[in-house]
Amino acid sequence: MADTDTVPVDRKSRKSVAFSEGTSVMDADGNISDAVHGEDKTTAEKHTTPPSGDGEVDKMTDMFANMAKKKKKSSKPKTSAIEDGEEAAAAAEGGEFDASTMKKKKKKSSKPKAADDSFEAKLAKAGVEGEDGGSGDANGEVAEQEGDPLAGTGIWAHNTTTPISYPLLLNRFFTLLNQYNPDILSSGSKSYKIPPPQCLREGNKKTIFANIAEICKRMKRSDEHVTQFLFAELGTSGSVDGSKRLVIKGRFQQKQIENVLRRYIVEYVTCKTCRSPDTELNKGENRLYFVTCNSCGSRRSVTAIKSGFTAQIGKRKRMNG
Amino acid sequence: MTTIENLRTIDPFAEADEDTGQVQQSQQYIHIRIQQRNGRKTLTTVQGIPKKFDQKKILKVIKKKFACNGTIVDSPEMGEVIQLQGDQRKDVQEFLTSEEGLGLKVNTIKVHGF
């Protein structure tokens, strides 16, 4: 363990640099930094979560435990063999992938593997980070944490010489990454987590979207706006019941709602320039809606929600009723 | 200076053109929507097909090709809208973009619904 400890220290300075780059996330280079960033996050998560004391802390602690295991794993590979190192790398890749594809549901399933946990931890951490606004302390700690996986990879590449291996490792990492997840680049690095929509059936013809308030809170959007969008997209109508749940006319499955939500996020939540979900929706002049990004400061107008043509359905029923 | 100015004018204009183009296109978008009816039944509406195409002929081809019934609804706000029985969103989109269909560009079509 003493060896591992020393290695991280060396890494720290480098990592801190990488982290700073990672925060600014850009395409290929950005992704690289991001990857580093992500690993940092996992380690950082440990550090950040306990002090933050958010509602997610419980989850985080679980993650933390898993993370600890994972760390040990990674540390062992450093000393042991190339194959182990590969495993660790693969695990890291998997984690990245999940984060980028913004799997909302994965989190819930949770903990099949240590690797998965790291991913989830990353996701969760991302959420925490968004709330915290990325504190400076986290950076330093993150750098430290990052040292472990990085060291493992470095040793993996050249058995002992760490500095030379790093770019090679990165290359290998990303080639593998792209092989396994071709859509990671297109989807960008979204470490953004939203709880899956909960859909209940009310009677035969209505669907209750139970946690819309929570989801809206996460997205920082008004319930009305999301509701409007949902109705326009689904081509139905509905109402809000006493406990702020949304009652939608028609039968909808969770998957379908989720699809629409995804589209909403792409259109009205994520910043098109930096892809950060940390944005605000404001009414500008002329009744136009503008999305302002909190991380890069860009501002763009978004189209108003139009319901479009809706055919008349159940005319006879209406006449009878 | 002139070159710089030119560059400046070109860049903003290009962006502006794209932006306005998108805004204008939003009216030219072809919207394919779906509506739920009783039970598993659904209705697909295709709105905003360019006027240079004959809706009746399109409908006839679509009806035959996708084995569904359909009508043309003339709504005062949205113009002529093609209504089809069943969930034909994918089919219609393919038809509109394919060569033997209308050969429209994919980015002019918006598919709504779940």
Describe the model:
Chain B: This is Eukaryotic translation initiation factor eIF-1. Chain B: GO terms for molecular function: translation initiation factor activity. Chain B: Residues 30-100 form the SUI1 domain. The complex is a heterodimer of chains A (321) and B (114). Chain A has 321 residues and is of the alpha+beta class. Helix content of chain A is 63%, strand content 9%. Chain A has 13 helices and seven strands. Chain A has helices spanning 2-23, 27-52, 57-79, 82-100, 104-109, 114-132, 136-158, 162-180, 184-187, 212-219, 223-234, 254-269, 315-320, and strands at 199-202, 206-209, 238-240, 246-249, 279-283, 289-293, 299-302. A four-stranded antiparallel beta sheet of chain A has the order 1-2-4-3, with no helix packed on it. A three-stranded antiparallel beta sheet of chain A has the order 5-6-7, with helices on one face. In chain A, a hairpin with a 5-residue loop joins β5 (279-283) and β6. In chain A, α4 (82-100) crosses α8 (162-180) and α11 (223-234) crosses α12 (254-269). The relative contact order of chain A is 0.10. Chain B has 114 residues and is of the alpha+beta class. Chain B has helices spanning 2-28, 55-66, 89-97; strands at residues 30-36, 42-47, 70-75, 79-85, 109-111. A five-stranded mixed beta sheet of chain B has the order 3-4-2-1-5, covered by helices on one side. The longest helix of chain B is centred in the first third of the chain and has 27 residues, at 2-28. Chain B is globular. The model of chain B is unreliable at 16-26 (pLDDT under 50). Chain A binds chain B through residues 232-236, 250-252, 255-257, 259-260, 303, 308-311, 313-314, and chain B through 26, 31, 33-38, 43, 45, 47, 73, 75, 77-78, 81, 83, 112-114.
